């Protein structure tokens, strides 16, 4: 038995970090934390044509953004640093007669498969370079051999999947797998077994598209002499149309959701809930996930990604987030929109006012731009909305006059507005709409008293004085 629960996430650095990979990482993290074990990161970089340092950095950045703290930070395993170890295990298998050199060319193998298809057979390697099948056969010149694992001919491979339960595959369905290419680079199925053995991984948690790899890997574990871990396969994530999640559904990159204005805790929570449930809990903390998570509670059906639900959840997290943190998060977005942050407006107060309304940081930043840009005043809006212009103009004049020596607090602004409403016998829209339009240039804003407070007394009075004069002249 394994001494400790150990899980791992092992992405290939060939592009973005996919939402499915992130969800798998979250489940691996949750299992490790649930049992007080370790969660490790491995970079599977043997695809030298597609693996790049930039893609590796994307993985590290995504893990950091999601706060998926792995226990081998500073000692991440990179497969390309382990080539000598893979060769060592291959040599051991060769000595035991459990692996052999195969000199079949690419053209030979293609012809073999075409012939099998023509006979109505399942295309598979026919064992032509097994030692008993090639006795006396000359080794072709100029052909660099690959190394194949000699898969057992008989019997059944069985395992109790952590999600799907008992699964059995006949060895007759499996052929002799290539475990090392001619250039000395191991294949996925071989390298992952050696790595997981050496890292003492107790639970291999991954997508259901790997189920067909599992019987091959179990046979390799047995041949090498390693302890077989618990395998758990997760159904894939589908888009809202029921098809496998892909670029046609929008972005599938984890870090793209940071750009779209989602908080990492919301993405973490949403992905964790996407295929797993604990009662009716939709919103939960990382600590609660670690406490509650069990592989057997994962669904066996594909999960369906729903942007509306993600936006709702993100809004819930934004509403409870610290205002100062949100202000810092939207500062670069405001700068990108041309906001002059040297105005020293109360950005924290602006965030506190707006966060009940906005579902993402993008929307929050756009809402905050109300206070940073000087919108042109469209008097035609007042022509549409205000039927008795003279009375509303008098209301604005009184506001301008009586606010001169007033303390600029939301409560005092509200008191002044209501006293003018009572005096002139008007309703709130007759003073609030012209104040909004003349000061902000917008017909709709958050509550007028809070908006005016955050605009600042000097700015409000200056814009109101100018705007009111223009409006009066416009209506003469």
UniProtKB/TrEMBL annotation:
This is Glutamate--tRNA ligase. It comes from Turicimonas muris. A motif ('KMSKS' region) lies at residues 244-248. GO terms for cellular component: cytosol. InterPro entries: aa-tRNA-synth_I_cd-bd (IPR045462), aa-tRNA-synth_I_codon-bd_sub2 (IPR020751), aa-tRNA-synth_I_CS (IPR001412), aa_tRNA-synth_I_cd-bd_sf (IPR008925), Glu-tRNA-ligase_bac/mito (IPR004527), Glu/Gln-tRNA-synth (IPR000924), Glu/Gln-tRNA-synth_Ib_cat-dom (IPR020058), GluQ/Sye (IPR049940). ATP binds at residue 247. One of its GO terms (molecular function) is zinc ion binding. Keywords: Aminoacyl-tRNA synthetase, ATP-binding, Cytoplasm, Ligase, Nucleotide-binding, Protein biosynthesis. Residues 113-136 are annotated as: Disordered. It is found in: Cytoplasm. Catalyzes the attachment of glutamate to tRNA(Glu) in a two-step reaction: glutamate is first activated by ATP to form Glu-AMP and then transferred to the acceptor end of tRNA(Glu). A motif ('HIGH' region) lies at residues 11-21. Its EC number is 6.1.1.17. Residues 4-312 form the Glutamyl/glutaminyl-tRNA synthetase class Ib catalytic domain. Residues 325-467 form the Aminoacyl-tRNA synthetase class I anticodon-binding domain. Residues 113-131 have a biased composition (Basic and acidic residues). Its main location: cytoplasm. The gene is gltX. Monomer. Belongs to the class-I aminoacyl-tRNA synthetase family. Glutamate--tRNA ligase type 1 subfamily. GO terms for biological process: glutamyl-tRNA aminoacylation. It catalyses: tRNA(Glu) + L-glutamate + ATP = L-glutamyl-tRNA(Glu) + AMP + diphosphate.
